Amino acid sequence: MATDFTEANAADAVVDSFADTPDPRLRTIMSSLVRHLHAFVRDVEPTLPEWEQAIDFLTAVGQKCDDKRQEFILFSDALGVSMLVETINARGAAETTASTVLGPFHVVESPPRELGDSIDLLGGEPCVVTGRVRSVDGTPLPGARLDIWQASDRGFYDVQQPDVQPEGNLRGLFTADADGAFWFRTVVPSYYPIPTDGPVGQLLTATNRHPYRPAHIHFIVSADGHVPVTTHVFVADSPYIDSDAVFAVKRSLIREFRVVDDEDEASAYGVPAPFRLATVEFVLERREQG
Amino acid sequence: MATDFTEANAADAVVDSFADTPDPRLRTIMSSLVRHLHAFVRDVEPTLPEWEQAIDFLTAVGQKCDDKRQEFILFSDALGVSMLVETINARGAAETTASTVLGPFHVVESPPRELGDSIDLLGGEPCVVTGRVRSVDGTPLPGARLDIWQASDRGFYDVQQPDVQPEGNLRGLFTADADGAFWFRTVVPSYYPIPTDGPVGQLLTATNRHPYRPAHIHFIVSADGHVPVTTHVFVADSPYIDSDAVFAVKRSLIREFRVVDDEDEASAYGVPAPFRLATVEFVLERREQG
Hints:
homodimer, Protocatechuate 3,4-Dioxygenase, subunit A, 2 domains, five-stranded mixed β-sheet, four-stranded mixed β-sheet
């Protein structure tokens, strides 16, 4: 390390200090972090008060975290980093179902349910979701498992409203039939805001960004011999579909939840007319043999 | 914002989300942060467990902070970011004294002292520091103020050892004489480690980096009509002079603390022989007229 720290040699000096890192992967990560972080600092040339503000912000983000709240994940989400990492890790055949972030609400085990069951335990406006799970080559995947969770038609998950919603409301663990097909009843979820009572919320306010996520249903779909996918199905006509606060929308994941006003079709699903109907196919990639 | 998040358009989409930021400086900073942060992620392609580890690390850094400990500043220091920001903000005439980080130990007001006073209240091995303060054009700066603080010959600041050192030990506020000259008595400080009992310490261990700072005395030097400088004077023969854990060493700030074994010179300073002697000149830039 040089005994002279200058703007020109700063990044080199700090990268050099990591030269003896035993784990080569950690060395690569720290070297890259230093290069990009120093490039950012040289780019914006922060004043000392701006640097102090950045330190205070990061400290507040860390201190907002507890066993129920992860403000650094929220910060990562709001900067599109979570989705970028998810997307990098889900590079696969172009045809497979695209992945999105897991999100912070997969905290309760989804109760096992039978095909056709309603995951809406409170009796809201009925919605039917049908679909099937197949492999990239078209083969149906019998017995595929679907872990499903969503917000209510008011935009809240069960765990956010313990006094209003029973635990397990709008959650379900389903097993596809012999044709890889599945269906369940629910309500159409509402858009909702990410938590705004912390430093990330203050940042959104200061930058005129809204905190909303467009309406969506979460899925983790898995099948033997295949790579599982963590994804959302988005409601096509939802507000904020073009400006998700966490950047999770992919066009291929948007579905019409169309209004069906047909008594025969309604009675086939055991719901009153009119009802909403969405159909989705999940395509999984075959797992490479070790 | 596009309704399709891809690796290729991710950074653009997130930068676009900040387009309505009212404060143009904040918009610039957030846009640059997103560009560099996404470039880092695309560069290292973190796995999901690596991303989770990064979230956990940053959370632990934030949670280690309290009113006496600022682990995010320590992280910034250990990545050379604090020194880079300091250096960018202290661009001036090449001839002025170079600046370094303030550090975390300027927490007690330095007691006013007379020229020649000892800041060592415990009677260690004597050291004399002499020098003067001048303007870039050579004009002496009478009445220049020097705020001075340092670690002991065991490597601890007074505030770290409240049971051993009296408050104000090895701290002093001096006023230069009519020629801009100053001198004071002290002990030669020791090198010391930055705090290692937090996540930054764990990072240093994992990367085989030592936590030590070479021996130094802190100065904030100010004079009417001039830009103050926050700096260190480093002890030339100190261990770690070539590998400061926070990258604060600049060659121009290193001084010999030479052994003087001369009774006449010793008695002129009112110390026993042998003693250590260092001389330093501080050069301040004239403040531009608003």
